[in-house]
């Protein structure tokens, strides 16, 4: 099945897949935003949500700000953004902020945490768990994504959800956020998100993770919405294919550009935040690029171009120098053994 999916995508050029993934992410992000706004409007008994301009205006009212503030407290707000950061212009309707997810907002990768949650619900085999743990260990040690790991995770996930109802996965993602992801938010990055929200700007999550989990992360952090990988659906069920492809690297930049056109944003007045050199195309689009917890390649690029660097990790460099590759394998094996032991205990309980 994985080979067939890749053959299906191979019929399009890389540029076509990138553009399609970006447009699909922007379409889904706007649809999600309109659905949320319409739901709040209906709940309040208001007719203001019938026009797009009214919907956007309603997002800035006092009730919205109070709700975002409450979510921020729950998600770990408590640190102020560094004083030397770019200060967003309050109330600028053409400015926004775009945040990568893995290792920028979260410690580790959202796809791994989603995999942990799905394993607990018996979606995965023991072999899948061992592979995912190794991939997460590699990511934590190297601080950057391996394209082969990303493709492997994509194929596994698509095969697992094919034929399943979208509503079922959305509910599972809600539960997984509470169980696994909520405690993995970097407080420093959370403060940067809040800084832009407090300025009245739209703040978007941009990630290769599925839109189902990305929307939940964005909503729980009080963000405007999410640009994420879009899985194809038919009659409320997943087909096992993606719309365009994974929202990764240049596809993230395409999604930001597509959303900027729809939302009439001036990217020179926008900010973007990421940890990975894979996101240089997205960071290069905006007037205020930040690198957060950067990998080595992105740190070098940032120094060359004068981009701001924020590193909220502690002791990470020492750990990387002192930890040989064999130790990484040991971590993976130990974590896998622990997961399997817990699984056996649950079955015998």
TrEMBL record:
The keyword Secreted does not apply. Residues 52-87 have a biased composition (Basic and acidic residues). Pfam families: HAD. Keywords: Membrane, Transmembrane, Transmembrane helix. The chain crosses the membrane at residues 321-342. InterPro entries: HAD-like_SerB (IPR050582), HAD-like_sf (IPR036412), HAD_hydro_SerB1 (IPR006385), HAD_sf (IPR023214). Belongs to the HAD-like hydrolase superfamily. SerB family. This is HAD-IB family hydrolase.
